[in-house]
Amino acid sequence: MPATLASLHDLLVDELRDLHSAETQLLGALPKMAKAAANRDLKRGFTQHLRQTRGHVQRLTRALKILESSVNGKKCHAMAGLIREGAEAIQAKGPAAVRDANLIGAAQRVEHYEMAAYGAARAFAEKLVQDDVARLLGQTLDEEGATNKKLTEIAKTVNDDAFLATNKREAILASMQRESLTL
Description:
single chain, 85% helix, Ferritin, elongated
């Protein structure tokens, strides 16, 4: 059943509940992504972001309390879909570096979704002169942006490794094919 959003305040509360649901879902996914990662920097990044995400949930709870609203009442279907894509990346077969590159792509899609949602919510809070809420959202928005940048940095190494792993594998397969043709 669609929510009734009679005001910008209602929309802000709805967005915060959606984000709370998204972050709570992410708390369950990040340990799985960390376990699946082969690259130690990526593994460490997922673990660090798990700690940050716990803080994001606390900030959202605080923001909703400031607005005299509960955290209940919303499921973030977008995050559920993004987490399903992350699960597919975890289960994919192939070289570890290629899986890590896939995990980074899945994680960056999550970060971009979160940055868009936090940016919109902060704009609503600013318009409503909810400075404390806007500040809390801005802190998290900054952290999400920093996480995205870290993922981009890690991707440089991981993508190189994935490229090398793939090309080595293809070269070995081509060599094996040539050998079987000459026999």
